[in-house]
Design a protein that fits this description.
Length: 241
């Protein structure tokens, strides 16, 4: 279920703000009844009419994208920086990213026009495991990483226990490569977690999302998810409590 104004906006009929105006002005019907409240949610089987015209639902599409560094995880950017949807010029559907990766973070990102699927993937109770590989300053002591494995206090709360693994250490450059697995999605979480224990991130990449990997893709590449993969992701998210 998604908010009515969001559904109208995703269908390309109006901006979110304009859709809200149309709703409050009584120009939108859901299942034959005029709706003027902005909090109304609709599902796949609800019939929506805008100005008396039935709204056609887009075919649901799902993409796995290897986001390069220096790209915004958004549909538009007010500073005219490159956004993830710039890499999908031939896709007619109005897709958007599921969650986000920071401007300076590369790696696996899912894009879709299926709001219900996106909500399930991002819901705090359901989020699937995500594996990141970080290059950091310093060589972490085991007791430092254990703090992340127990959960560490950040300004927006205590993180859930993470899994960590040191992949390599460069004593000469005083840097390390660390793998961190989390199932949350706090803003800039990996960077803040590692900085909190004294190891600032130099470079960060999301290598895996659930069972999905970047195998066979280069930065900027994408592929469509198979129906089986989408089904597995839904199942995985709903089973994780």
């Amino acid at each position: 279920m998604e908010r009515l104004q969001k559904v109208i906006a995703h269908a390309g009929l109006a901006s979110r703000r304009k859709a809200e105006e149309m709703i409050t002005e009584g120009k939108v019907k859901v299942n034959g009844k005029v709706v003027k409240e902005l909090g109304v949610k609709v599902g796949l089987h609800d019939k929506v009419e805008v100005n008396g015209v039935p709204m056609e639902k887009e075919k649901s599409v799902y993409f796995l994208f290897y986001k390069p560094r220096g790209v915004i995880s958004a549909v538009t950017d007010d500073k005219n920086r490159k956004v993830v949807t710039d890499f999908f010029p031939e896709i007619p559907e109005r897709i958007y990213p599921v969650g986000r990766l920071d401007y300076d973070t590369s790696g696996l990102l899912i894009l879709t026009n299926d709001g219900e699927f996106a909500n399930i993937m991002m819901h705090p109770k359901h989020e699937v495991e995500k594996i990141y590989v970080a290059k950091v300053k310093g060589m972490p002591f085991r007791e430092d990483l254990k703090k992340l494995e127990k959960g560490i206090k950040l300004e927006d709360g205590v993180t859930a226990p993470a899994k960590t693994k040191v992949l390599s250490v460069d004593k000469q450059k005083q840097t390390s490569i660390i793998e961190v697995t989390i199932h949350e999605g706090k803003n800039r979480q990996i960077r803040r977690m590692l900085e909190a224990i004294g190891y600032p991130v130099i470079k960060l990449k999301r290598e895996q999302y659930g069972f999905l990997t970047l195998h066979g893709l280069s930065a900027g590449d994408s592929r469509e998810l198979t129906p089986h993969e989408v089904k597995l992701l839904r199942s995985m998210a709903m089973n994780e409590k």
